[in-house]
């Protein structure tokens, strides 16, 4: 089934495309790790196969924004239990709160999703359990005018993939392949699991 490196790299791309488009994909919510060795589950919003770029959404006030500004190295782990495939990626990240890509991502978001950027910044201290949202927006979808202040807190996290590590778990023997970018091309190799 998995015998050619080019087929495996294409399979990786297909899985990332599906993960971004399909909320039910097991790879829709990867673990993203920043260079400060902090990890978090995030939602994959888009994958650009031509650029091998992941797009996720974030808050400009989040600690990961400062971590990425200090050191853009990131890693991500995707896992599909049913297919028994793990995909680890490494790349460089940047956070963009302005520009075409951030504006398009904001425009494509629902008002219910946008309301997350109205509340307290991620990690803000509270005296009680809280969503961080202003009370008037708990369980309520704000209108466009109410969301105007939220836009300044919204950003896209863009990750340019430079390395892929693919692992297929099989009772007959696991298989593993690695890929590294060489300019516009990829170099692949088989490695022991």
TrEMBL record:
Single Gene Ontology MF annotation: FMN binding
Highest classification ranks of the organism: Bacteria, Pseudomonadati, Pseudomonadota, Alphaproteobacteria, Sphingomonadales
Location of the Pyridoxamine 5'-phosphate oxidase Alr4036 family FMN-binding domain: 38-95
Protein's recorded name: Flavin Mononucleotide Binding Protein
Domain of life from the UniProt record: Bacteria
InterPro entries associated with the record: Pyridox_Oxase_Alr4036_FMN-bd, Split_barrel_FMN-bd
Pfam families, sorted: Pyridox_oxase_2
